[in-house]
Amino acid sequence: xxxPRTAQQxxxxxxxxxxxxxxAGGAELVCQEFAALTAAAGHRVTLLTAKVKxxxxxxxxxxxxxxxxxxxxxxxxxxLLWLLLHRRSVHAVLDSQNxxxxxxxxxxxxxxxxxxxxxxxxxxQFGQYFPxxxxxxxxxxxxxxxxxxxxxxxxxxxxxxxRQGARRELRLRxxxxxxxxxxxxxxxxxxxxxxxxxxxIVCVGRLVPHKRTRIVIEAMPxxxxxxxxxxxxxxxxxxxxERLAQIAVAKQVSHAVTFHDxxxxxxxxxxxxQAWIAVSCSSGEGWGISVIEANALGTPVLAFDRPGLRDSIxxxxxxxxxxxxxxIGLALADRLKLLGDGSGTMREVxxxxxxxxxxxxxTAKLLAVIHLERQRLQLIHPERRHLSDVAxxxxxxxxDLPEGWTPDRLRQGDAVTWLDGQLTLLLIxxxxxxxxxxxRRIGLPDLATGDLHSIxxxxxxxxxxxxxx
Length: 469
Description:
The chain is α/β, with parallel strands linked by helices. The protein folds into three domains: 10-178, Glycogen Phosphorylase B (Rossmann fold), CATH 3.40.50.2000; 188-354, 3-Layer(aba) Sandwich (Rossmann fold), CATH 3.40.50.2000; 388-469, Alpha-Beta Plaits, CATH 3.30.70. The protein has 14 helices and 18 strands. Residues 25-182 form the Glycosyltransferase subfamily 4-like N-terminal domain.
């Protein structure tokens, strides 16, 4: 649902790449979907991002404007300069952080809402891509620098793992809300394709070091020992492409490994839909959009128990999580046998799980956070407001609700969903004692009446339920 404020706003999104960039990934897809849906809701949206070879510096697409300037490192300075020059016309900023923050609070007015969008924590990844001194600077900017510049500005994390990393590793101080991304497949027909006759594995993602695609290839001898006809399909492009092909030759599994460098979105979806299982060896994700896309196509996912992946995969239901360092080849062989026997049919379960996550729901939550941040900044002393990551889940049988009750009286930021004949409330920022006066104010029975089915402190997974405002 749209943000309560109906007047058109100018919302600026900052992200180091846009979806036309050859290295675009999940973060770029999130920004694209938010920008397009927010523009469709009647707002003016500008995306500030880096230059892309062959693309204009200014371009309109899907109702919003893309302004490109700067390169891999200078894009941050260009974005700050643009914001500084246009700060009087900017009503809110969605600051998408991919390791290096944009530090946009430095360039906008103090009462302009800035929402820090965290995809995942990069502290361990800087060393994989940069020399030690540069990696140290990156870690400082993502943690200490970010903490001082953003202060208590509101934060949106795409998963419980990212929120945990923001608190424990980066030690950020702002209020953090969890808002997972959505997904979209190219055609509904892909979801109805039959699985391949021979056991098939698909691995989707950019071919870069932290995705660790090499582990999948190195595991194929164990898979082929149990399933000689098995096939591995790798969908993606990146700087590790040739190295991965060499590993396949060295492991003598190149006959069973196919690289789909030029696959279209439709071809990718067909490969995923027809595969028996998808696999991810990534060292960590913010969430796992490709995981949910695979689930939407009826395919379970096997991955290491790593941040983000442990959130997007329901172990034993929509896929499997194995401990880091376990032999993934043996795990794949076991799951392929399970799926081949028919006892591991997961199509309907995975599709239902994927149905919880939509771009429309993500956009509505982000717009609500912008609205709440604007209200916070209008307080006389906004930095003194008490913040808490605690939330409470309340479940009440629908039959026990007062006649005519509607969720219209919920506080801004609270959420509701209707599941299995129950009303489930997510009350943000309150523990169990603090939830009692909230329940009374919104016209629901207090604990003393005995009508409540259950009430408990929310777990990370509770934030992934299909809540609506």
